[in-house]
Amino acid sequence: MGRCAAAITVSDGIARRLQSLYGLRRPPTVVRNVPELDGGRARAGLRERLGIGDAALVLHQGALAPGRGCEILVSAMADVPDAHLVFLGTPWPGYEGIVEGLAERLGLRDRVHWAPAVPASELLAHTREADVGVALLEDTCENHRLALPNKVFEYVAAGVPVVASQLPELQRLVERHEIGWTAPPGEPAEIAARLRTALAARSNGGVRDRVRVAAGTLQWATEREQLLRVYRELPGADG
Predict the structure, then answer these.
(1) What residues pair up with 30 in beta bridges, in sequence order?
(2) Mean pLDDT of 5-9
């Protein structure tokens, strides 16, 4: 069998790790998992359906699963008064009821809500209703430390600032583009503090402006060029 002529991965950290692990002459090309979604201007009516109204809204987008900071986020919400948390997604098998039970025990059932996953074509209409989106992977494995979750790019596409874990790739992305704040993963008090800061900045147009600028870069049109370049460099590809 011949050697692979090109390698592709989804973050700079993974590219460096693969280069070291396999002794590659150069790191793989990074093509990030940036979704091609239409931002539009439509609203989904999420706030109205859940009875949130104009209250501050924190959004966790994507499946509820162990290691994604779901329980830690609920614990943090105890110190984010008057704000509401929405989980938009479906729990992994075996994880059903875990977050609901914790919210009940903490007396937060009136401020923690659940909504089922929606088609990709409707996603940003829901996302746009949030004041801040969270990506709180826990520091449990190298996969998490090197990950760039799709939800972060979806928040940005919808114009929503983020609070993310202080893991290498996530922190680098958030700080480089100034799209939000980072917190030590697994620390409810620290996460609550960042959420309070993010929600206090709701009226700060500068934060939203920076997210809009980042959305012009963090889009599939940009990543697609990287992928096409790899194809053009393959042996036998037409010039």
Answers:
(1) 9
(2) 80
Coil, strand or helix: which one is 196? helix
Same domain? 141 vs 203:
yes
**Does 39 score more than 70 pLDDT?**
no
pTM for this prediction? 0.92
The DSSP H or E segment spanning 216 is helix 205-217
CA 150, CA 152: separation in Å to the nearest integer? 5
Closest residue by Cα to residue 128 from 60, 48, 43: 43
Average pLDDT over residues 21-46: 86
What percentage of the chain reaches a pLDDT higher than 70?
A: 95
Strands of the sheet with 180-183, listed across from one edge: 112-115, 84-88, 57-61, 132-135, 162-165, 180-183
Task: Give the contacts of 167 (CB within 8 A, at least 6 positions apart).
Answer: 137, 139, 144, 145, 146, 147, 185
**What's the CATH number where 71 sits?**
3.40.50.2000
Same domain, 140 and 204: yes
Are 77 and 183 members of one domain?
yes
User: Looking at the domain assignment, is residue 74 inside a domain?
Assistant: yes
